[in-house]
Amino acid sequence: MKLARRTFLHFAAGAASAAAVSRVTRAQTYPERGVRLLIGFPPGGGSDVGGRILANRLSEVWGQQVVVENKPGAGGHLAIEVAAHAVPDGYTMVWVGGAISLYGLMIASINYDPEADLTPVTLVGTYPNVLAVPNASPLQSVRDLIAAANAKPGSITFSSPGVGTSPHLAGVLFARMAGIDIRHVPYRGGGPALTDLIAGRVDCMFNTTGTLLAAVRANQVRGLAVSRSRRENDSLVRPNCRQSRSPACRIMT
Question: Within 10 A of 87 (CB to CB), how many other CB atoms are there?
Answer without folding.
Answer: 9
